[in-house]
Amino acid sequence: MVKQDGAKTLGDLRRAVESGAVPRRNVHEEVRQNLIRKLRAGESLFPGIVGYDDTVVPQLVNALLSRHNFILLGLRGQAKTRLLRALVTLLDDRIPVMPGCEVNDDPFAPLCAACRARIAAEGDKTPIGWLSRDARYVEKLATPDVTIADMVGDIDPIKAARSGLQLSNELTMHYGLLPRANRGIFAINELPDLAGKIQVGLFNILQEGDVQIKGYPVRLPLDVLMAFTANPEDYTARGKIITPLKDRIGSEIRTHYPSGRVEGMKITAQEAWVQRDTAGVRIEVPSFVAETVEEIAFQARQDRRIDKRSGVSQRLPISVIENVVSNAERRALVNAEEVAVARVTDIYAALPSMTGKFELEYEGELKGAEVIGRELVRAAVGTVADGYLSHLETRQVVEWFDLGGSLQLSDNTAAEELLGQARDVQGLIELAHGAGIPKDASVPLLAAGVDFVLEGLYALKKISRSEDRGYHASDPPVRRPVAREPTFDADTPIPTGSGKKKYYN
Q1: What angle do CA 388, 394, 397 make, to 5 degrees?
Q2: Stretch 423-443: mean pLDDT, rounded?
Q3: Is 295 exposed, middle or buried (0-12, 13-18, 19+ CB in 10 A)?
Q4: Which residue ranges make up each domain of the chain?
Q5: Pick from 86, 88, 77, 68: which is nearest to 253 by CA?
Q6: Residue 209 reports pLDDT greater than 80
Q7: Which of 69, 98, 125, 434 could form a disulfide with 115 if both were Cys (CB 3.0 to 4.6 A apart)?
Q8: CA 113 – CA 110 distance, rounded (Å)
């Protein structure tokens, strides 16, 4: 790895390079060598990336070892941008540059005319600077209004007038984002959103190293690692990507959502703001609440009323769990409780953090996002509760409701009050313990367990719940009259078209 060794002039740098203290290599080779070193040492390549160890990461490593420019294809919320930003860890700590140069010129091979002139005039006494790895990453979100001047550059008439230069002079050029990323990593998010002429400018400068600015040909043999992201729906011949650019991208890597609930929960726990510093209130999130929140995303990704092309971002469970904790926090503050334990009913209070995270198909639009959200929560609760309650005997609790019992509870009900009503239901507390709540659990945690059992029985359609009646007996199914065949007496003749008599025995 390159370290600043005290070289302050071009002569110092030349001697450091000759001694091997400072290696000379392009960005692709730099990333490749640092990647090889990390692989040999068994170091973590992309910290914070969960669920890609056996799928995306090996493909990305192969692309970098091949010195490819690459594109990450995936729906929203699949950690594409985080992966791109993690590439910075594969760069050297510092590299030598010409100080004040807009394009981070290599002192041994400067691109811009100003740096070449300075080196020619000062020789080995030319001062050099050192650029940190973080300053070598440039990212741009592609939008239809991006111009070639934004990406590559343009002629600056003011600079020409002040310097008394012709507009065709190279010194009058104002460099765009891509040249300013020279000797670093340039990332473009949502590549297909770039206008076609901008895409042409990109592949021309990537392949041939030149571009025309205002009719003047400019040579820019940039040393840059290019990385892109895109939605698979747009990245097709029928989409908004031009095929010559697609052809020049070395590797195409598909990202994906977490393959299971456990992976999703790891990501959510890593990203969500759950552990808070509320004075006098400790936050606790039971496992069944975390599982239910994560299951909502999986239910949404399978729901035919939700647009599969847009996807359901991993931001959904992250936002929901934060809102769930906030509702539990509010309840604890209002009821003067020292522990804020999240409940399943808090998830319904978190609907505002959910409904904006998915796009609806026509059938879903007819119902509305809030109705769909409630149905997703109920389906998620049912899936999770089935794993906790399927081995337990719930008949005693269900019969209590069938005999006319009801419970009026809400997400604002204090833990003591909730347990006070729950003790009237024979077997309900024991069912909560059977679902994993310890015998010595705190009152708020036990209340959350009872709440989970009740919501689970409701989601599994063993009891019902309504705004006015609370939890009550499951509504009996509507009985429809069954069509029956007419019956006849054995001695009754049945007329037929032939005039003969037939009898049913």
Answers
A1: 125
A2: 92
A3: buried
A4: 10-254, 261-473
A5: 68
A6: no
A7: 98
A8: 8
Name the residue with tokens 């899936």: 383
Residue 242 φ/ψ region, left for φ over 0, alpha for ψ in the -120 to 50 degree band, beta for the rest: beta
Structure tokens at 357: 């995270």
The predicted pLDDT at position 20 comes to 80
Distant-in-sequence, close-in-space partners of 231: CB < 8 Å, separation ≥ 6: 73, 74, 75, 76, 190, 192, 309
- Whole-Å CA distances, 339 to 272, 329, 413: 19, 8, 14
Place of tokens 């008394």: 164
Residues in Cβ contact with 52 at an 8 Å cutoff, skipping those fewer than 6 apart: 46, 79, 83, 255
3-state secondary structure of 283: strand
Q: For residue range 128-180, what is the model confidence (pLDDT) as tens digits?
A: 999 999 999 999 998 888 888 888 877 666 665 666 666 566 666 778 888 88
Q: Give kind and range of the element (H or E) at residue 326.
A: helix 315-334
Task: State whether the Cα torsion 418-419-423-427 is positive or negative.
Answer: positive
Q: Looking at this protein, which amino acid is placed at residue 342?
A: A
What Rg, from alpha-carbon coordinates, does the chain have? 33
What is the average pLDDT score of the chain?
86
Cβ neighbours of residue 106 under 8 Å, at least 6 residues apart? 96, 97, 98, 183, 223
Q: Report, at the CATH architecture level, how domain 10-254 is classified.
A: 3-Layer(aba) Sandwich (3.40)
Cβ(190)–Cβ(71) under 8 Å? no
Q: Which of 110-114, 311-315, 321-325 has the highest mean pLDDT?
A: 321-325
* The residue type at 393: E
Q: What average pLDDT does range 240-267 have in this prediction?
A: 90
Tokens read off for 300:
């949404």
Q: Which residues pair with 141 in a beta bridge?
A: 189
Q: What is the pTM of this model?
A: 0.83
Q: Tell me, what amino acid is at 505?
A: N
pLDDT tens digits for range 349-389: 999 999 989 999 988 899 899 999 999 999 999 999 999 99
Q: What percent of the chain has pLDDT over 70?
A: 86
Find tokens 């705004």 and name the residue.
Answer: 467
Residue closest to 256 by CA, chosen among 272, 245, 248, 267: 267
Asked if 179 and 167 touch (Cβ cutoff 8 Å), the reply is: no
Among 322, 353, 327, which residue's Cα sits nearest to residue 340?
A: 327
**Secondary structure (3-state) at 270:** helix
On the question of pLDDT at 85 being above 90, the answer is yes
pLDDT score of 497 more than 60 = no
